[in-house]
Amino acid sequence: MKVKVAVQVFSTSVAAGMSTYISLGALSSCAAETEKMDVLFDLLNSSSSLSRESNKPFIGTAEQLQLITEYIALFEQMQAFKDMKINTITTNMLRDLSDDAYFLELVNIVMHPRQPKVYRQRTNEFNKWSDEEFRDRFRLSKPVVEYVTDETADEILSESNRYHALSASEMVLLTLRFLACGCFL
């Protein structure tokens, strides 16, 4: 069993056990905050697509945004901790969480959708350079690079599901450029 899966199973079973013990009165109601923090942790750190909304990766759905709003209110309730003098470092950390706009700014960053990715068109190095410039730049002629690409294409292409992955000729040219001068295109 992978460690990640074991942690998720353990976390889920501990949260379920805590919820049961709280409802039976075996644990104090303060343990409910621990359970809520566990759900918040799952919400912000999950990479699996399970059925519960808090276990799905955060993408800003209405349910997830409602959960985040509830946690903001929970952090605002934690202001009772800021006057305690148990440990100045802990007190300052809690004060920073509850008072500063920094925390709310982080929540806004997480809650708002991400900027769309920008894909730039890659230049075709074979058309961009003349034969002499190509040979100076990559230390091999165009026909030789095409031959090397044809011979190695099956070996160097990765099984990637990503869009805009590098083609075999681009990988060969990047490697040749790096070997020629120690830098990429």
Automatic annotation (TrEMBL):
<protein>
    <recommendedName>
        <fullName>Transposable element P transposase-like GTP-binding insertion domain-containing protein</fullName>
    </recommendedName>
</protein>
<dbReference type="InterPro" id="IPR048366">
    <property type="entry name" value="TNP-like_GBD"/>
</dbReference>
<feature type="domain" description="Transposable element P transposase-like GTP-binding insertion">
    <location>
        <begin position="1"/>
        <end position="57"/>
    </location>
</feature>
<dbReference type="Pfam" id="PF21788">
    <property type="entry name" value="TNP-like_GBD"/>
</dbReference>
